[in-house]
């Protein structure tokens, strides 16, 4: 009965490749997010989707693109991977207007770019 | 702009000691939410508390307590009688409805020594 799940848990790839990370939530939430946590543990929000509409788009490279086939899924696609993309990526979800409800986080995906 | 400062990078305490983690925030919004998350060594992010800007009452949950003071823009977190299982990185965060985005502090790594 996992609330927010991500696959894969670990992803090792070569520079220049394209990869995707999948996220699914079974909480019935209508908003989902992607965060990046760098090697210094700094957490930064990248995107959020509410009812399939992008409502936040932080200043991340356009090589990163969120894709939401339905409100239970928010996948993260990354083109032309770079060394600096190595990080842990967290998916999260919440219900309703963001500032009134807590976010539930997935277990994270550790991406290593060689 | 929003900002969250967790000045304590790392704290070490001996088991059963009390410890306070500091969090200072900046925002121009009058409506905002503050929260704390715990990230144990296993890596997941665990929600601890959210407090809105209109509620300055202190909160206690077991060994955890939070002190919110708008006058000093602080939302400090105290663990009483610390235990080894409290060892983790603790993140303080801020989000406001006007921006619909969240800003995390850089985290405080707490090590509880048996």
Fold topology:
The complex is a heterodimer of chains A (114) and B (114).
Chain A: E1 4-7, E2 10-13, E3 19-25, E4 31-37, E5 43-50, E6 53-57, E7 64-70, E8 73-78, E9 87-94, E10 104-105, E11 109-113
Parallel strand pairs in A: 2-11
Antiparallel strand pairs in A: 1-3, 3-8, 4-5, 4-9, 5-6, 7-8, 9-10, 9-11
Chain B: E1 3-5, E2 10-14, E3 19-21, E4 24-26, E5 32-39, E6 46-52, E7 59-61, E8 64-69, E9 74-79, E10 88-96, E11 101-104, E12 108-113
Parallel strand pairs in B: 2-12
Antiparallel strand pairs in B: 1-4, 3-9, 5-6, 5-10, 7-8, 8-9, 10-11, 10-12
The gist of it:
By secondary structure, chain A is an all-beta fold. Chain A is 0% helix and 55% strand. In chain A, strands 2, 4, 5, 6, 9, 10 and 11 form a 7-stranded mixed sheet that branches. Chain A has a 4-stranded antiparallel sheet with strand order 1-3-8-7, with no helix packed on it.
Structure write-up:
The complex is a heterodimer of chains A (114) and B (114). Chain A is 0% helix and 55% strand. Chain A has strands at 4-7, 10-13, 19-25, 31-37, 43-50, 53-57, 64-70, 73-78, 87-94, 104-105, 109-113. In chain A, strands 2, 4, 5, 6, 9, 10 and 11 form a 7-stranded mixed sheet that branches. A 4-stranded antiparallel sheet of chain A has the order 1-3-8-7, with no helix packed on it. Chain B is built from no helices and 12 strands. Chain B starts with a strand and ends with a strand. The chains are: A mainly beta (114), B mainly beta (114).
């Amino acid at each position: 009965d996992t609330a927010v799940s991500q696959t894969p848990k670990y992803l090792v790839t070569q520079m220049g490749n394209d990869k995707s990370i999948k996220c699914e939530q079974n909480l019935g939430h209508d908003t989902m997010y992607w965060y990046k946590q760098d090697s210094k543990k700094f957490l930064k929000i990248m995107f959020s989707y509410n009812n399939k509409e992008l409502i936040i788009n932080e200043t991340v490279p356009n090589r990163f693109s969120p894709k939401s086939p339905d409100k239970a899924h928010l996948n993260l696609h990354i083109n032309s991977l770079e060394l600096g993309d190595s990080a842990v990526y967290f998916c999260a979800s919440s219900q309703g207007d963001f500032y009134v409800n807590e976010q539930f986080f997935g277990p994270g995906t550790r991406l290593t770019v060689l | 702009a929003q900002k969250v400062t967790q000045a304590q990078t790392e704290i070490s305490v001996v088991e059963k000691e009390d410890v306070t983690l500091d969090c200072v925030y900046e925002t121009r919004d009058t409506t905002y939410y503050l929260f704390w998350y715990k990230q144990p060594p296993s890596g997941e992010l665990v929600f601890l508390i959210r407090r809105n800007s209109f509620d300055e009452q202190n909160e206690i949950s077991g060994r955890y307590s939070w002190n919110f003071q708008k006058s000093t823009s602080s939302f400090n977190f105290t663990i009483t009688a610390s235990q080894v299982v409290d060892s983790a990185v603790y993140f303080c965060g801020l989000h406001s409805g006007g921006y619909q985005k969240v800003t995390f502090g850089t985290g405080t790594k707490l090590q509880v020594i048996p």
